[in-house]
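Hi R.,

Here's the chain you asked about this morning:
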Amino acid sequence: MKALAQLKMGMAVCCLLAAAGCAQDNATLAGKQPKVALSGIVVLPVQPVTDLGDDGQPATGQTILQNGSLVMDSLMKEMLAGKAGVHFISAAQVGNMEGAGRNLATSRRIAAEQGCDAVLETTLSRYNERVGGDYSVKQPAAVTFAYKLYEVGEGRVLCHGRFDEQQQSLMENLLALPKTQSRGLVWLTAEGLARDGLKEKLGQCPYLEGK
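And here is the predicted structure, written out as tokens:
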């Protein structure tokens, strides 16, 4: 038992060192990318995406995703609040045009109306709430989203990222050690996990990182 504990501790230390190395590499690569001067960024509403059922209608999880998208919209405003040049657009402002965020012509129109030259588009494909409490769960929270920041002139992607996590205990996955240390030994709600994911991913983009 003592040997097994020592082995686990050694693996955990290796994981920490590897994570630190990766973070340093990512920061170095990001620093080499030329940063484009932007007049402003339009933030589109988070779009829920799900597969269709056999009857051609959205799957039963669509309502959950729609509610999750509203939570994500609030988190986006929380993360980017007070950041110069950021303009949030409501679903009503986007209008009823299908796939507005995926249509470059529509994005150009929306950006022009706001005096901006870049658009932030986010899609949410999984938003499962935990079943249980802070210290014991039957089912952990799970969140999957992707974002893309692009300038609307040529449609060039400036930043993009994807977050896909179902929270795990340290015993299930030793690679979760750095996150466990930052989050504390608690099981997050879906909102908490989404907040953590947005902070991580937006923080990797030089246009969207913290104030």
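One quick note: The two ends are 48 Å apart (CA to CA).

Cheers,
M.
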